[in-house]
Structures are given as structure tokens and as C-alpha cells.
Design brief:
The structure holds two protein chains of two kinds. In chain A, strands 1, 2, 3, 4, 5, 6, 7, 8 and 9 form a nine-stranded mixed sheet that branches. Chain A has a four-stranded mixed sheet with strand order 10-11-12-13. Chain A is built from 14 helices and 13 strands. By secondary structure, chain A is α/β, with parallel strands linked by helices. In chain B, 72% of the residues lie in helices and 1% in strands. In chain B, helix 1 packs across helix 6 and helix 10 runs antiparallel to helix 11. The chains are: A alpha/beta, B mainly alpha. At the A-B interface, helix 1, helix 8, helix 12 and helix 13 of A face helix 5 and helix 10 of B.
């Protein structure tokens, strides 16, 4: 009988069916979810991480964990920082560890649920770490799969631990929601930038001047010792405070501040820009919308004149190299709306209108140049991102490295041109004056 | 007997595109960034152009041997001994391609989303699924590729657009020539090996309705696969500019993870994972099919499906040999994506030259298989 060499169609169908059963059986038996399943109710979601210097270990990690059942069913409804009932809507604890992974593991010795960073909204870096040991933390964190580069980053004046312990929002039950609202709010008014871990790491790796918003615990307010406007050390009555978080003149609850910018040289914190300086930087580098700005009234410098400013057309930056020196031309174009005039001068008509525009241009230019003297010439921090423009002139990475922009930042000549147009005059056309 | 199908141009182009992009979701953009620095996208572009030239060589060989696929044309031109050796080289190239894909993919999943699942289980599952798809045949794979192609494309476009909106730094492509023109062009030529998978077109050439369909398919696959490769590399280096671009383990996944537009568009890696898994499974199935098809032709077996289970066992066993991700990188990047072009494009060129010298095959280029 001849040997059969070809498979019959029926046999082939049978074999195919058997193979299909085998595949289905394998799929059923090897459901990978069995290994990696994680029920949400068994997870402790970390909403914010604080990083400080430890006493016995390199780091002291502080974790703010959301107590989800306290705010289930909605964001609103203030509950005295405690959500429903007396239980707070967040718990805060600190662990010393050589890295964040070890800190999370150590947390499992007292937190029954799996501590997860998958929904972390903010990382607060303590001042000491920011000045000395930032990359040791960031290097380990960015490798860790649960850590997201889209997380907001802040630098704390003082201890990040104090900030997280004092952070007990009254209006938001969900602590993560407070961070989202806060970041959006301070960025909108231009008092602090919104910076994510990704941007911070990119800036450090690209050898630029990284920056981050500043937060501060208000231990004085927490102790009921806050004060407003002491002579000399506080800002004058101005809508744009020339102070950094921690010094905002105020009283009352929620003893934490968010204002100002922490500026780094490479991976080390070099100094802080005040809220006012931050706003000037924002005008030069980003688009601002309806931010409050004040200048001394041209007719009476004792009085303040307030306008709202918006970017008219995006600011431009041109960088040129001449004889080894870098010359930078920044052009800022703004439009203004009168918001508050304390004097009786009518700035809605010429020539006062032009006079006011000129005064504002001079004022912003002066403050911009002062801010740049501090950042570029003192701290050698390229906050304007001039390097971005300069790189285009080089053909290869080797050429760019040989040029050594970082060593030339201090000697860069920057010319700031500010053009302000008062477009609208608010609801009042001429000033209201008492009848004499 | 190997079932003879009539492959449609759209379906086959989708399949070849998935095969070309199989590893683009893993390390490919990082390799380009390591090679070219700020000129990573340029390295990718040059690699695609060189691969297009490589395809012209394969096409010329197929034109010269109408009605034959690459393996048959190779044997006709080089004779049974050398022809078999060259076909075995194609087999080895395709087998290593499938092997590195499944191991890299499994390792990535363990690192990123399934940390407690044994890698052997993931390798097993993907090989079983890939083998089953290969068993169903190239027509089934290509139709699935076409079916899911639009979804994958939407996912990729979504990531590209939102990646750019969120974090693009336009100066990421400067200095323009990266490590220099010589390095950029040189590495572009070397990395054309990454698109050596185009050899697949030679393997399935006889399963098209006409030679014109083969050429149209290759053209579309090169345009779509090559174009997406360059685009993804470009966007990646704008979001993760040099030198960070060369330091990321899973470039496109990280890009998806940093996307954040307002409160509502964030954590979009689910979209990415969807596209990633589909493309990886399709590429693996195509790789397993092509590997078994070449081996069957080399061994003069009428039906490639007889080899599927033995190949599955062989792939499963060998996928466990590299002890770490590093060793997989050496195998994938330093070996396969450095010298693979010599097999994928060099051997067809050699075969074509011998065919011309020995006056084997048809004299004209008018193929009508």
C-alpha cells in the first residue's frame, strides 16, 4: 500500500480544530491577569511625594496618601480638611530610605494596602535636596516604572515634609485636586511656572537652566503668628508681590504658599525669583493672559496704577554671535487694559495715554533687565533659553560642545525691547472724582 | 502543499508595514538617537532610502525570475548547494528577527505592565498566537493587518499629535548633522538593516496576482512603514531631545506617558499599548510565517505548516537563551540591525549578479506570475 504523503482536507480541519482548542486552553490557563491583578480598593494611592535630606539615610520621603472613601462621589464640599465625618481625606507619613523604591517597600511595613505612585500629582523637593542631591533622587525615580514624568514638580523653601503636613485644603477634599487647581491658578496669574518632572530632567540633561515653582510651609501662620506688611522686609502694597513663597504677606488658614521660581544651575538650586520676577520672565518666554501688573502712577509716584496685561504677539528672541560674544535681542509685545487708577489723571486720552504706555514699557524693561542680571550674569542660568536659538547655528554636536555656551552665559549681552499698547480702558472711561 | 492565495495590495502592504514597524515600538528610535544624536531622524530617513534601493535589487531579481519567489530564484541562479546556503541565511535572518521581537516584546511587557508575570509565559503565549496566525496563512494575517491598520494608525497619530502639543522642543533637531555628516550617512546605511525585513516581499512574491501588485505593495509598505519610522523618530527626538533620546528604554511608551493636555487628555498609554500589541503580534505572526515558508522552500517541503510546531518549540527554547535585556540588545542591535542588511539586501544583490553573469532566469524584466 503506498504511503500517504499529503494530509487530507478532513484531517487538516480536525488538526486545525485541535490546535484552536489548544490555543484557547492555553489562553485560559495562562491568563496573565492572575499574576499582576491589583484591585483598586487594595491600593493606597500616593497623591504627593516630599523629598528631604534624611538623618541616617540619604533621603527622607514623605508620602501624602488620598483616603479615597472620604471624597468618593464628588470633589466639592469643604469638610474642614477632613472630608466626610472626622476622618481626614489624606494621610501623611515619612520614611527614611536610600531611594524612593526602598521607601515604598518600607511603607508596606505599616500600610496594609499596596502603596502606588500611579496617580501621584506632585513631587515636592526640599531645599537641601534641590541644592545638593537632586539627581540622586531624580535618577532613581525616572527609572522606576510607577513614577510618571508628567508629575508636577515643586521646590520647597524649607522642608517638603512640613509643606505636606501643613497642606490641609479646606475647599478640596481630594488633595490631588488641590495641586491641579493650584498649578493652573498660579500659572495663569504668572506667579509661578508649571513644570513637570519631564521638563526638569530634560533641562538638566540638556545642560540648560532648569526651573520649578516654589512652595513653602507657613509655620508662622500655622502657629497663628502671621503678619502683614512689617516695615522693610515685606512688599509694598502691590498686586504683584515681589516675594517668594513663604513671605507672602497674609493671615489666615491654609498655611502654605505657592509663588516664585526656583532657578537651577545644571542640577543645583542657585536661587529664587520672586512672583514679580517670575511674571516678567513669563512675559518674555511664554504667553500671558490678563495678568495683573502695577507701576507707580506717572503723575504721582506714591500711588499705584494697575493694568491687566496680555501677550499681543508671542515674544521673539534673536541671538547672534559676534567675536565670541553672544548678543540677544528680546522683543516683548503686550496689550493692556486699565484696571485701577488711584489718581485723578485721565489716562484714557492723549497725551496721558502715550505717557502711561511709555512708563509701563520703561518699568517692565527695567525689571526685566534686573531679573536677567540676576539670572544670566550672577547665576549663569539661561532662563531665556538662548541656547535653543544658538544651537541652530552649529552643524554638529561637537561644534556646539566646543563652543561651550554655558561658560558664555555670564557675558551675554541682552537687549530687551518692550512695546505696550493700551487697548481698553475698563468699565470706567474717565476717573470718578468727588464734586468740589 | 502550501496554500496559494491571492494577496491584495492593501492587505499585504498593511502586513509588511506591521512587520517593518514591529520593533519601532521598542528600541528602534533609541538606536537612531544613539547613532545620530540630534540627527536621529536623518539616520532613519537615510536607512529608509537605502532600504528602498535594497528593495530595487530584490525586485530586479524577481523580475529576472518571473513566477519564482526569492528562494526559488536564488536556487535557480546559484544552484542547489549555494542556493540552499543562501536560503538558509534568509531563514536565519527571519528567524532571528522573530526571535528578538518576541523576546524584546515579552521583556518590555514584564518591565512596564506585567512585572509579576513570568517572561516564559508571555513568550509562550505570543508564540502560540503568532504560530496560529501563521498556520492560517499569509492571507489571514494580511487581512487582519488591514482590518486593524486604521486603528493602529489612529493610535499613532494621536500619540504623535499630543506628544508634539505637550512637550515638543523644536531645537531638538539641532545641530542638524548630529555627530557629523559622515557618521549620519554611514549609520543610515548600516541601519538599513532594520528594514531588511523587506525580504518578506520576495518570500511572498508568488502569492500576489501579478508582479505589478508585488511592486505596488512594496512601494506602499515602504512609504507607510518607512514614513512612520522617520516620523516617529522625529517626534520622539523633539519630545526627548538629545542626549535624553538615547537613554530611554521604551521611547514611544515614555512619549505616551508624558502626554498631558489639560485635565482630560492624560494617561494615554492605553492607546499606545493597544497599537503596540496589535503591531507586535502581527509582526510576529508574519515573521513566523516567513521563517517557516523559507525553511519549507529550502527543504523542498510542499507545506510550510508542517514546520510550524517544530519552529515554535525551537523559537520558544532559543528565546530563553539570552540571559538579559543587554544580551538581547547586542543580538538585536549590534548583530541583526548592523549586519542584517548584508543578508537582506547583499545576498539578493549577489544572486542578481550571478544570475546576470550566468544568464540564468528571464532576460527581460516583463514578469507576469
Amino acid at each position: 500500500m503506498p504511503r500517504q504523503t499529503e494530509v487530507s482536507p478532513r484531517g487538516l480541519r480536525k488538526a486545525r480544530r485541535r490546535f484552536l482548542y489548544l490555543v484557547l486552553l492555553a489562553c485560559l490557563l495562562l491568563q496573565t491577569g492572575c499574576w499582576d491583578r491589583r484591585e483598586p480598593e487594595n491600593v493606597a494611592w500616593v497623591t504627593a511625594i516630599g523629598v528631604d535630606t534624611g538623618e541616617k539615610q540619604p533621603f527622607l520621603f514623605t508620602f501624602q496618601i488620598a483616603v479615597a472613601r472620604q471624597f468618593a462621589g464628588g470633589q466639592g464640599g469643604g469638610a474642614g480638611g477632613g472630608g466626610r465625618g472626622e476622618t481626614p481625606s489624606q494621610m501623611v507619613f515619612s520614611v527614611e530610605a536610600p531611594s524612593i523604591v526602598v521607601a515604598l517597600t518600607a511603607s508596606q511595613t505599616f500600610v496594609a494596602r499596596h502603596v502606588s505612585l500611579l496617580h501621584t500629582k506632585a513631587v515636592i523637593i526640599g531645599e537641601e535636596i534641590a541644592r545638593e542631591n537632586l539627581m540622586a533622587f531624580l535618577g532613581a525615580a525616572t527609572r522606576f516604572v510607577e513614577f510618571r514624568r508628567s508629575t508636577q514638580v515643586f521646590v520647597a523653601r524649607g522642608k517638603a515634609r512640613d509643606f505636606l503636613q501643613l497642606l490641609r485644603p479646606k475647599l478640596e477634599n481630594n488633595p490631588a485636586w488641590w495641586f491641579e487647581l493650584m498649578v493652573a491658578g498660579v500659572e495663569e496669574i504668572g506667579y509661578a511656572p508649571s513644570v513637570r518632572i519631564h521638563e526638569l530632567v530634560m533641562d538638566i540633561e540638556r545642560d540648560r537652566a532648569p526651573f520649578a515653582p516654589v512652595v513653602a510651609p507657613r509655620l508662622d501662620l500655622a502657629a497663628g503668628e502671621g503678619e502683614i506688611g512689617t516695615e522693610g522686609d515685606r512688599a509694598p502694597a502691590s498686586p504683584v508681590p515681589d516675594v517668594v513663597a513663604g513671605d507672602v504677606p497674609r493671615l489666615g488658614e491654609l498655611p502654605v504658599d505657592v509663588a516664585g521660581t526656583a532657578v537651577f544651575y545644571q542640577d543645583r538650586l542657585t536661587g529664587y525669583l520672586t512672583a514679580r520676577e517670575t511674571l516678567v520672565l513669563m512675559m518674555m518666554t511664554r504667553r500671558v493672559r490678563q495678568v495683573a501688573w502695577d507701576i507707580p502712577d506717572p503723575t504721582d509716584p506714591e500711588l499705584r496704577l494697575v493694568v491687566t496685561l496680555s501677550t499681543r504677539t508671542p515674544s521673539t528672541l534673536e541671538a547672534r554671535m559676534r567675536g565670541g560674544r553672544v548678543r540677544v535681542q528680546v522683543s516683548v509685545k503686550l496689550e493692556a487694559q486699565l484696571a485701577s487708577i488711584q489718581s485723578t489723571t485721565d489716562y484714557t486720552v492723549e497725551p496721558e495715554l502715550s505717557r502711561l504706555e511709555e512708563a509701563m514699557e520703561k518699568g517692565i524693561k527695567r525689571e526685566a533687565e534686573a531679573m536677567l542680571r540676576k539670572t544670566l550674569h550672577e547665576w549663569e542660568a539661561d532662563v531665556l533659553r538662548v541656547g535653543r536659538e544658538l544651537r541652530k547655528a552649529f552643524a554638529t554636536i561637537g561644534d556646539w560642545h566646543r563652543f561651550g555656551w554655558n561658560k558664555r552665559v555670564r557675558r551675554a549681552e541682552v537687549d530687551v525691547a518692550v512695546d505696550v499698547r493700551i487697548r481698553r480702558t475698563g468699565l470706567q472711561r474717565t476717573p470718578a472724582v468727588p464734586k468740589r | 502543499m502550501t496554500p496559494m492565495h491571492n494577496l491584495g495590495v492593501r492587505e499585504a502592504a498593511s502586513m509588511v508595514t506591521a512587520f517593518l514597524l514591529g520593533k519601532a515600538f521598542l528600541r528602534t528610535p533609541v538606536v537612531f538617537a544613539e547613532d545620530g544624536g540630534t540627527a536621529a531622524w536623518l539616520v532613519a530617513l537615510i536607512a529608509v532610502l537605502i532600504a528602498a534601493c535594497g528593495w530595487l535589487v530584490i525586485r530586479s531579481l524577481l523580475r529576472r525570475h518571473p513566477g519564482e519567489n526569492l528562494m526559488e530564484a536564488t536556487e535557480t541562479a546559484l544552484g542547489p548547494v549555494f542556493g540552499t546556503l543562501v536560503n538558509l541565511a534568509y531563514f536565519l535572518f527571519l528567524f532571528l528577527t522573530a526571535l528578538t521581537l518576541v523576546r524584546d516584546f515579552a521583556d518590555s511587557l514584564v518591565t512596564v505592565i506585567l512585572p509579576r508575570t513570568p517572561v516564559s509565559v508571555l513568550i509562550g503565549i505570543f508564540l502560540i498566537v503568532g504560530t496560529y496566525a501563521a498556520y492560517l496563512g499569509v492571507e489571514a494575517i494580511s487581512r487582519i493587518a488591514w482590518l486593524f491598520g486604521a486603528l493602529v494608525l489612529i493610535g499613532l497619530v494621536f500619540i504623535v499629535i499630543f506628544g508634539l502639543i505637550t512637550h515638543a522642543e523644536p531645537d531638538g533637531i539641532f545641530p542638524f548633522w548630529g555627530y557629523g555628516p559622515a557618521q549620519t550617512v554611514g549609520m543610515g546605511i548600516v541601519r538599513s538593516s532594520m528594514l531588511g525585513k523587506l525580504v518578506l516581499m520576495g518570500v511572498v512574491a508568488t502569492q500576489f496576482r501579478s508582479a505589478r501588485d508585488v511592486e505596488r505593495t512594496a512601494l506602499w509598505a515602504l512609504a507607510a512603514g518607512g514614513g512612520l519610522l522617520v516620523l516617529l523618530t522625529l517626534v520622539y527626538q523633539l519630545v526627548f531631545p538629545y542626549p535624553a533620546a538615547a537613554k530611554i528604554s521604551f521611547p514611544l511608551l515614555q512619549m505616551a506617558r508624558v502626554i498631558l493636555v489639560g485635565r482630560w487628555v492624560q494617561r494615554v498609554e492605553a492607546v499606545f499599548l493597544f497599537a503596540w500589541v496589535i503591531v507586535a503580534v502581527l509582526a510576529l505572526a508574519t515573521g513566523i510565517f516567513a521563517t517557516s515558508r523559507v525553511l519549507a522552500a529550502t527543504c523542498k517541503l510542499a507545506d510550510y505548516r508542517l514546520l510550524l510546531i517544530p519552529l515554535l518549540i525551537l523559537a520558544y527554547s532559543t528565546a530563553h537563551i539570552p540571559p538579559s535585556v543587554y544580551h538581547m540588545e547586542v543580538l538585536g542591535t549590534d548583530v541583526l540591525h548592523t549586519f542584517g542588511g548584508l543578508i537582506a539586501f547583499g545576498l539578493p544583490l549577489l544572486t542578481l549578479l550571478v544570475s546576470l553573469l550566468r544568464r540564468k532566469g528571464g532576460a527581460s524584466g516583463a514578469a507576469s506570475n
